[in-house]
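Usage example:
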Amino acid sequence: MIDAARLAILTESAKYDVSCSSSGSSRANRKGGLGNASVGGICHSFTPDGRCISLLKILMSNDCLYDCEYCPNRVSADVKRATVTPDEVCELVINFYKRNYIEGLFLSSAVFDSPNRTMELLCETVIKLRKVYNFHGYIHLKGIPYADDVIIMRAAKFVDRMSFNVELPSEKSLRLLAPQKTKESLLNPMKKLRLAQICESENHVRKGRIIPAGQTTQMIIGASPESDGEILRLTEALYRKMGLKRVYYSSYIPVVKSARLPSCGAGLLREHRLYQADWLIRFYGFDVDEICGAGENLSPEYDPKCAWALKNMHLFPVEVNTAPLEMLLRVPGIGAKGAYRIMQARKFTALGFDNLAKMHIIIKRAKHFITCKGKFYGSESGQAVRAALAIDGRREIDEQLSMFSSSEVALSALTGEI
Ligand code: SF4
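Running the assembly step on the lines above writes:
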């Protein structure tokens, strides 16, 4: 039985990993089993700083062989160490699940003993949970770089999601701050998992699929000097080549003192802007080049969609009743859901501003970029539009930490609608 002291160490050590969203897996409980993983993922709840907390998030060990400069668990750090066994993790998961504390597991580990041994123990844990403890809830497993492909592929058959962290946005930074890891050691397992997924889908395998909720990754922002443009280019390549479900950005927090690291964190606003840009790439049809130049950073003042629209005022206003979907998606204040609602509704009637308000379109932003039945209520001058949107931008800077606010800024942070 795991004791409270080790549990405290291992859950505390896991808290810096943010890649624990659970959406995308669908598996019903079986008779005599425990738990479900539903299409929408297990229920999420969020701490005030936006972290997901409904999974048991734990390390198997924080006793690491490696010495990543930014990590509180690195071998040279003077911290309390703890390790648990596969059975201890399984018992904890089942106990917590039965008490309704958690709905799934996010299991990771520092590299103790060797990469293969660590991955074997992680693999043993998830197999036991599924086969011995009959647990059908959601499991997200963090993979260990340099572990043998056979162990990784075996583990992948028993979990919903796997992730290998790319850690830092460039090879150069990896060499400097995480010298025992290489780009290949992080990307190769992702590639193999991707290949296995493609083979499955080509062979129409439905039952017993590997990682049905796909792969994710995480990178630390602000510990190294890469610009937002470089980070977004890497993100775009990871979505395209590895078929990732999500890239998570973790704003660097200076928990470790080091001459190689900045003395202050990157701030949550930068993280928030990167997530907004990420949504534009995935759901709004934007190319990374349109959002941010290679060596540039995103504007703190305007969200990336507003920033793009302000640079391209010559393309606006567009008529809501006739504009193609691709253009509606580019209007500030019209989110992806809003654009699809407009496309449906306008088949039946010509839309006015009052109709848009009922579709949750943010009229005070959108009005500068659209006409409805030929009517335009925005500002004619580019300067006035900039000033109006800058007020929203400043509110966003002030409010973006509050995930519980009912304001449109906070809702946008939760839903990705921009
Ligand atoms: S491998 Fe690096 S980042 Fe992971 S626990 Fe060890 S020192 Fe920390």
